[in-house]
Amino acid sequence: MFSKYPSFAPRIRVLVALAVALAGSVGIADAASQRISRVVIDAGHGGHDSGARRGYVLEKHLALDVARRLERYLERRRMRVIQTRSRDEFIALSQRSDIANRQRSAVFVSVHFNWATNSESSGTETFYYNNYSFAYGIQSRVARKARTPNRGTKRARFYVLRHTSIPAALVECGFISNYSDRRRCLDPRYRQSIAEAIGEGVLSYSGG
Ligand code: ZN
Q1: Span 37-206: which CATH code?
Q2: Predicted confidence (pLDDT) per residue in 48-91, tens digit
Q3: What separation in Å is there between the alpha carbon of 6 and the centre of ligand 1?
Q4: What is the pLDDT of residues 181-202, one digit of tens each?
């Protein structure tokens, strides 16, 4: 196609180079100098949606507990916190991303617990759609504190990640389907340490 209009080719090359340079500088500014003063915490599931479940262990309860601990951790460090839910109620995914998208100078963290048909699966993982560095900063700290397998930082097309315009991460704090993970998840000290690890990741991204 370009060979038909040879004189356009150099100009297009310059434009491409400019676009790449701009994208690079935006990426750096995004991580280093963005002032983050608000955190939208999204406790997964709720109400009739229990999420993962094993006997009396319900993902929605564990997620809300970690979300509250994370809220306390961040508020003590002068962050403004907005919870998508503060009790056991059903909130549609679109409502969750709408709440996030109303915020400026904010990040979004969704808290979940995992489930796999293979009961051997264990450990923590964090998902992102657009912003790898935000999710990586959280996952590296969560994995260090959890002392379970680090399943890594992965890209996923989850609704709340795709529809949230601010930096967004979804943390899976352990497998309810795995015996030893489940025991840890039921321990409030584990949930506190995970909440603090997520909080540290948020603060490091915000330059705090
Ligand atoms: Zn979940």
Answers
A1: 3.40.630.40
A2: 999 999 999 999 999 999 999 999 999 999 999 999 999 999 99
A3: 54
A4: 999 999 999 999 999 999 999 9
DSSP the chain: -GGGSTTHHHHHHHHHHHHHHHHHHHHHHHHHT----EEEEEE--BTTB--SEETTEEHHHHHHHHHHHHHHHHHHTT-EEEES-SSS----HHHHHHHHHT-SSEEEEEEEEE--SSTT--SEEEEESS-HHHHHHHHHHHHHHH-S-EEEEEE---HHHHT--S-EEEEEEEETTSHHHHHHHT-HHHHHHHHHHHHHHHHHHTT-
Ligand 1 centre and the CA of 50: distance in Å?
Answer: 8
Average pLDDT, the chain: 89
pTM (predicted TM-score): 0.84
State in Å: Cα 193 to ligand 1 middle: 19
What pLDDT was estimated at residue 35? 84
52 CA distance to ligand 1 centroid (A)?
6
CA of 112 to the centre of ligand 1 (A): 4
Tell me which residues have their CB within 5 A of the ion that is ligand 1.
44, 51, 112
Distance 53 CA to ligand 1 centre (A): 10
